[in-house]
Amino acid sequence: MQPLDFYNIINANFNFQTPAMAFSTNWTRGPLDNSTAAPIGQGLASFLYGLPTGGQGQVNASYAQQTTYTAAFIQDNYK
Questions:
Q1: Which residues does residue 64 pair with via DSSP β-bridges, in sequence order?
Q2: Which of 2, 5, 27, 65 could make an S-S bridge to 9, C-beta 3.0–4.6 Å?
Q3: Alpha carbon distance 48, 8 (integer Å)
Q4: How far apart, in whole angstroms, are the C-alpha atoms of residue 3 and residue 1?
């Protein structure tokens, strides 16, 4: 009789790990707070400054599972 054994399952899902970032005119309007934004290029300017206005990142679920079992073994190759 073989002693108690362990059967382990570990699952880590690494799909879709790239974050999404949004760049808008929030940081590049001005000189006043209530100034209107330029018709083009303000999002690119925010990107070049490194000042995102929003974004998201997905955290995927992972799990680990362990099961114990007892097994019997009989050797059947006699000579």
A1: 10
A2: 65
A3: 47
A4: 7
Name the 3-class secondary structure at 76. coil
What are the beta bridge partners of residue 66?
8
Which residues touch 43 (CB under 8 Å, ≥6 apart)?
Answer: 23, 24, 25
* pLDDT tens over the chain, length 79 residues: 455 677 788 887 777 677 888 988 888 887 777 788 788 888 888 899 998 989 988 777 778 888 877 777 777 777 6
In this prediction the pTM is: 0.48
Helix, strand, or coil (residue 14): coil
Paired tokens of 51: 């000042």
